[in-house]
């Protein structure tokens, strides 16, 4: 059965051949790949005459989106996401695509550090550790304890920033020395701009539901654990992080292999139109322009890319998407000989509060986390520089933002800062890689949840059958991307199967 049929394009002029698909997914990052895989599996037994079940289109020549694993001379490193929380949905997907034996887990007890007043101080990971921690003063600890127990000023009745919420709850010391570096290191975000309820939804909701953060930590219901594939052995422990032996890139490539000819690389979506039968998607492909007719379309692109496609079809949704900022972040990967570092070097990495005057957001000690990340006698470090505050800080200091610097200049800044934080003697770094992401991580700024609700309402009202599914919605972690994609697939399949049943399809 051919899936190319004679057709007329949206402008009404003859079109020699158009591809027909039940669902078109645009974007082959981890979200698009997972969504296409689940749709392919679910629609396999419900083919429509002359139509393929799913078509997944990716503009670039590779899958994975921001996932980018690199290797060279015995080193292996990540230039995008560097690890994942081993949640069941993600672990089961890893097992399903044949990578269970490639799973590696970092020691969940590895210390995390904050660079404060020229010292690397461990982050307290337990109440006992918090009591003896040098990271907070006695007054700061007492203030945090008072907040944990619920002795705080009432919520102001308006949306709070991350800084406002945690300062009210735990005090200024905790904010400056823990929350701000975590926010900039994990989200590349600005604690004065991010919404607490959007970026830290679970924690920020405890006050209203349970009266205090302490009560919420104990009383909040735990989600029922999902069944885990028996291939995942050993079962990850609390606090552990995961990766794959050859790097995270293994996962999108393994899913792509399962998808076969459902996946089309080098297909850039250029037009998106709608008629009474569904949607027309125009693509620029290596073989020339192609049109695809589809009943449903899912955009798994970054917000700014989805906004461009929706500009004419749904201007309201396009504008809402453009309101989601993406700051630049550079990943600078450096290696050093072991004898130029503290002995023994053991830890997850370190974060740097913005008040310490350095430009590096944080550093992951990659070769301490996972095996085979560096040759014997050397250590590999992933350093992150830039983020939501970099441009304003640079203007204030009269220096160029990171986007105006060369790769060599960014690497030199990171090396100089690592020299004062971590190195025990002067030594030149081994420069392994430098990757600038001009638009890196979506920011959940004030009003984000309302913005997303308006976006979903606009899509349902003006362009039914067109959906978005991406990390700017409600979680940026890899496990969240997989969870969201599988939920979207179930929603589409329930609609498709119900329609097929109602029309007498068998």
From TrEMBL:
Pathway: Porphyrin-containing compound metabolism; protoheme biosynthesis. Its EC number is 1.3.3.15. One of its GO terms (molecular function) is oxygen-dependent protoporphyrinogen oxidase activity. It comes from the Bacteria. Residues 30-493 form the Amine oxidase domain. It catalyses: coproporphyrinogen III + 3 O2 = coproporphyrin III + 3 H2O2. Pfam families: Amino_oxidase (PF01593). Keywords: Cytoplasm, FAD, Flavoprotein, Heme biosynthesis, Oxidoreductase. Its cofactor is FAD. It is found in: Cytoplasm. Coiled coil: none annotated. It is an enzyme of class 1 (oxidoreductase). Gene3D superfamilies: FAD/NAD(P)-binding domain, protoporphyrinogen ix oxidase, domain 3, Protoporphyrinogen oxidase, mitochondrial, domain 2. Belongs to the protoporphyrinogen/coproporphyrinogen oxidase family. Coproporphyrinogen III oxidase subfamily. Involved in coproporphyrin-dependent heme b biosynthesis. Catalyzes the oxidation of coproporphyrinogen III to coproporphyrin III. This is Coproporphyrinogen III oxidase. The lineage of its organism: Bacteria, Bacillati, Cyanobacteriota, Cyanophyceae, Thermostichales. The gene is hemG.
